[in-house]
Write a structure and sequence with these properties.
The chain is an alpha/beta fold. The chain is built from 10 helices and 13 strands.
């Protein structure tokens, strides 16, 4: 039996066509080799042709969106940085236009850094801005780029730090020894409501954004601008930074490779990212 004719692992057989599809990228829409399969490309194009908007909603910064920028249709928008920015992907990489920025205030960022250092000694940091990426000297090489500046987080976030007028989108905090879920719990308890805290990496890496900033809250703003209710949204995800979005959407699917918290939050489940789980659901939703 082919994947096109298999039944989805769970979730009711919905027949109501959505108005908007919101999908995470890494571990969800993208295969493990960071490519978009031909079947997924075709499904995204078919959704747009049918009048269903598609939003990529990711923890990635705008400059890492090359993998999917050619697959945006119509509006050309993506939600990046776990909701910290809405970005117009039209144009060349590195020149994307920021439509909306929900920044992390530097005072909040410095307080979060201090509190998490106290709660989890050994934590090291990187700072993600709209166009720049800076890190502490001991922060590991986890990302795809060389940092612009190496300095303590307190300097990176200070008034005389690099690009002090450029908004901070999020802080990345890494711990070399703690279990990833344990580190997330410690970070949330230490930081409290001063910032939003989540994770999307298999490592002990947490992502710290402005208070109330999440994939869900920024997606809700985008939908409100379009007159789309949450009931008309279908969402896909695989990691804890997707939980709020999957809980908010009228219908949601955890990938076959999803974190247990994601499975608990979603209303349905589909196949893994390497098995075109998103495409299989879209094809079913668009079926006459």
């Amino acid at each position: 039996m082919t994947s096109a004719t298999r039944r989805l692992p769970s979730g009711r057989a919905d027949t109501v066509r959505p108005r908007l599809i919101a999908t995470d990228l890494d571990g969800t829409l993208l295969r493990d080799d960071k490519t978009v399969s031909p079947r997924t490309v075709a499904a995204l194009a078919a959704a747009e042709e049918a009048g269903v908007e598609v939003f990529f909603v990711t923890g990635r910064p705008a400059r890492w969106m090359d993998a999917v920028s050619e697959h945006v249709h119509g509006h050309g928008l993506a939600i990046c940085g776990n909701g910290a920015a809405v970005v117009d992907l039209h144009g060349e990489a590195g020149s994307h236009r920021f439509v909306t920025v929900r920044e992390l205030a530097r005072d909040n960022a410095l307080e979060a850094v201090r509190r998490l250092r106290d709660a989890a000694p050994g934590t090291v940091y990187a700072v993600e801005q709209t166009y720049g990426f800076n890190q502490e000297p001991d922060y590991p090489r986890l990302h795809l780029e060389i940092p612009d500046v190496l300095a303590p987080a307190e300097e990176l976030l200070g008034r005389n730090g690099p690009a002090p007028r450029e908004p901070v989108l999020k802080i990345l905090a890494f711990h070399p020894r703690l279990d990833p879920d344990t580190f997330l719990r410690v970070a949330r308890a230490a930081i409290g409501g001063r910032a939003g805290v989540t994770r999307s990496s298999p490592n002990a890496l947490v992502e710290i954004s402005g208070p109330g900033v999440s994939k869900a809250s920024t997606l809700a703003l985008c939908c409100a601008e379009r007159g789309i209710s949450h009931e008309a949204v279908v969402a896909f995800g695989d990691m804890p930074n997707d939980v709020e979005m999957l809980s908010w959407a009228g219908r949601s699917y955890a990938m076959g490779n999803a974190h247990p918290d994601v499975v608990a939050a979603a209303s349905g489940r589909t196949y893994a990212n390497n098995d075109d789980g998103v495409a299989i659901v879209i094809e079913r939703l668009l079926r006459p």
